[in-house]
Amino acid sequence: MIKWNNLNTLSSFENLSKVERVKLAEVMSGENGADRVKKYTIPMAAGLSYNYAAKQVDDDVLEALTKLAEEAQLAEKFEALYNGEVINTGEKRLVLHHMTRGQLGEAVEADGVDKRTFYTEQQKKIADFANKVHAGEITNAAGEKFTTVVQIGIGGSDLGPRAMYLALENWAKKNNTFKMEAKFISNVDPDDAAAVLNSIDVAHSIFVLVSKSGTTLETLTNESFVKDALKNAGLDASKHMIAVTSETSPLAKSDDYLAAFFMDDYIGGRFSSTSAVGGAVLSLAFGPEVFAQFLQGAAEEDKLAMNKNVLENPEMLDALIGVYERNVLGYPSTAVLPYSQALSRFPAHLQQLDMESNGKSVNRFGEAVDYPTGPVIFGEPGTNGQHSFYQLLHQGTDIVPLQFVGFKNSQIGTDVVIQDSTSQQKLCANVAAQIVAFACGKADENKNKNFKGGRPSSIIIGEELTPEALGALLAHFENKIMFQGFVWNVNSFDQEGVQLGKVLAKRVLAHETDGALKVFSDLLNI
């Protein structure tokens, strides 16, 4: 029987708090460090591996984390989730994003429908549509091919798909699978939509409107912006737009769209990149086969997340180490540092994925928790970040745990040798150096040049950022965040914190304001 208990009521957590702290600078120095790097690694899907040698753990800490995983019933809770139990207690919903890329357990039926069949049918519909667009069977009114796809959405309808597109754009061009350029409109700021529309040929563009409810204010506003541009160009908007929405939304049966592809309430926006939300734009941009490879990488990583052995489950171990850093060592934030320009927007996606999921101060039963939950997430790709905020990471007063991502090979393959090394070698040399520099530091009598070290990091390493590797990377973090929510006993699958601002904004627009809200409205000339 599954029990949902607060972290600080678990005896294993109390024991974890008492385990002797690891002196990272000592254990990562010399041959001890070399042995740790070889020992503390777990294989992932798609040729990736998770290395946690530079984390503040040893065998004693790992044993305590294993006991915490057992008492918190992490494996059992994941099993309950993918077998269709109501895990999203806030909204009384199932959580089924894993099923968009495979069925991990029993068949799940909801609303009288086999959900795995539902998702695969939507994927097939998207694939058929994309293939017809690429073949010129679906065209604009003049019978000409569409050359650009524009996604209109916000939050999870933008951040994940945009990050995935940018991650694979150069790979697709190199591997001759690049079909259409993709652009994204998300911000209700009119400059966002105007800039995108000014950069494209609207006559040869197809627009993907993404709104599960069909009522998202920013998205519908941007849709009107686009429709106005199409009208001004003498074009029929209904011949240029498709919808990704729920079957019950007002968009589902509208004649305003060439086609509609469906998702449902069992997939949260931030977990929707492997659903139709990511499927439509990525299949149009790169072809359905590439999207299928992306799904395959995510599915294989999901299977690893089922492993009850913590030391063979990269997601679960990453999650538990993060809990140890947050709740025992007291570190308030985590930096995500991909040494890959293709992953330039991946940290932004993880900001939403992590902070919207676990940024909670009440447990699953609505009771206040008296321990820290989700950390602040931020990041930039290396080596750019080194010339930005690494000063604070190395010598600031707060210790910030780091999650590096690196690949042995570049996507495009074009490189140059300068001073006896390629650019890719320089990139990889930097990430290796940073890991050791953060962990070991450097003593100097000049305190301004003294590095204390003891700053923990992990790294996910791969051969190359391929669709399969990207899918595995995405699933790793989705599952890590889920496991952390289980440990903290919070509901990682609702987001009530985004609602209050929306409600007040509608009051402002309706001029139903008083007090400070009225004064700010007047100051902004609303």
Question: What would you note in describing this structure?
Answer:
GO terms for molecular function: glucose-6-phosphate isomerase activity. It is an enzyme of class 5 (isomerase). This protein has 526 residues and is of the alpha/beta class. Helix content is 43%, strand content 12%. The chain is built from 18 helices and 15 strands. The strands form four sheets. A six-stranded mixed sheet has the order 1-2-15-12-10-11, sandwiched between helices. It has a five-stranded parallel sheet with strand order 6-5-7-8-9, with helices on both faces. β1 and β2 (49-51) form a beta hairpin. α4 (59-71) packs across α12 (314-327). The longest helix is centred in the last third of the chain and has 22 residues, at 467-488. The termini are far apart. 48% of the residues are buried.
Beginning-to-end CA distance, first to last residue: 55 Å
Number of strands: 15
Cα-atom radius of gyration? 24 Å
Q: Judging from the principal axes of the Cα atoms, what is the shape?
A: globular
Strand residues, percent = 5-15%
Q: Major sheet: order of its strands?
A: 1-2-15-12-10-11
Stretches where pLDDT falls below 50 for ≥5 residues?
none
Helix/strand/pairing category: alpha/beta
Helix content: 40-55%
Number of helices: 18
Describe the main β-sheet briefly: 6 strands, mixed
* Residue-averaged pLDDT: 96
